């Protein structure tokens, strides 16, 4: 399976893993997450932990409130604690210091280019 099914309001949508950059906790809505792609952001009622457990080969936790798609990582800046994502690395998300080694290891060994 190369997609996930999400429910957004009253609609059920299919989102391809290859389109997802990262997933983060919603900043304003408790219990909601934001699934961020190059073109859209989806708000859905789901838990990060559930996604992390269902798709461990695709997503890695980079922060307490964020998961990143391993295949979308273009660069990692250890000084600024940022992971650059997208076709040209135009999107970024921060990571926690204690997760740096695990992110780097997973990206080198499993992340696609």
From TrEMBL:
Stored SMART domains: LytTR
Gene3D superfamilies xref list: LytTr DNA-binding domain
Domain HTH LytTR-type: 4-109
InterPro entries reported in the protein's UniProt record: LytR-like, LytTR_DNA-bd_dom
UniProt-recorded name of the protein: Two-component system response regulator AgrA
Protein's organism: Streptococcus saliviloxodontae
